[in-house]
């Protein structure tokens, strides 16, 4: 049985973030499929730390947004929303220009929690920039 919500598309996800942090950072969702979502983000000066390397928070923003949007697309029927309850990132490299890409993959799609892994890469070289994991708590409507 598919857990992917058919009413959620890449276009819907990209529109959702337009006036929020993902839109400001230039994060764009690329491809949504069962148990996975890919994205990309251009690297601009606003993504760079004062040491002239890609800011870790920029990398986390891409990975967290991708996993969060993947969660939205895979919410169980009747669920209202979700919230991130834990995240971890390991930073392995950097880029100073171009873009970075991310692929989020579901590890667990339960009724009350979801666990997503993401790999952030330099799409030109294929080098891994970061490994990311988060746990999402599924939010259900209150029963009055």
Task: Please tell me about this protein's structure.
The protein is of the alpha+beta class and 144 residues long. The chain has a single domain (10-139), classed as Hotdog Thioesterase (Thiol Ester Dehydrase, Chain A), CATH 3.10.129.10. The chain has helices at residues 10-16, 21-25, 56-73, and strands spanning 28-33, 36-42, 81-91, 99-109, 113-121, 128-139. Strand 1 and strand 2 form a beta hairpin. The longest helix is centred in the middle third of the chain and has 18 residues, at 56-73.
**How far apart are the termini?**
30 Å
- Domain count: the total is 1
- Number of helical segments? 3
The computed structural class is: alpha+beta
Helix content: 10-25%
Radius of gyration: 15 Å
CATH-wise, what's the superfamily? Hotdog Thioesterase
Order of helices and strands: HHEEHEEEE
In what order do the strands lie side by side in the largest sheet?
Answer: 1-2-4-5-6-3
What are the low-pLDDT stretches, counting only 5+ consecutive residues below 50? Answer: none
């Amino acid at each position: 049985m598919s857990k992917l919500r058919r009413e959620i598309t890449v276009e819907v996800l990209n529109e959702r973030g337009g006036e929020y942090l993902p839109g400001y950072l230039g994060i764009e969702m690329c491809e949504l499929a069962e148990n996975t979502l890919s994205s990309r983000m251009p690297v601009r000066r606003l993504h760079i730390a004062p040491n002239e390397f890609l800011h870790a928070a920029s990398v986390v923003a891409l990975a967290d947004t991708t996993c969060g949007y993947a969660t939205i697309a895979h919410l169980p029927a009747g669920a209202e929303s979700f919230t991130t309850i834990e995240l971890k990132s390991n930073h392995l490299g950097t880029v100073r220009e171009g873009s970075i890409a991310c692929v989020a993959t579901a590890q667990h799609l339960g009724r009350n929690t979801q666990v997503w892994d993401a790999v952030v890469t330099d799409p030109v070289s294929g080098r891994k920039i970061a490994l990311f994991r988060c746990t999402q708590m599924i939010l259900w409507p209150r029963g009055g």
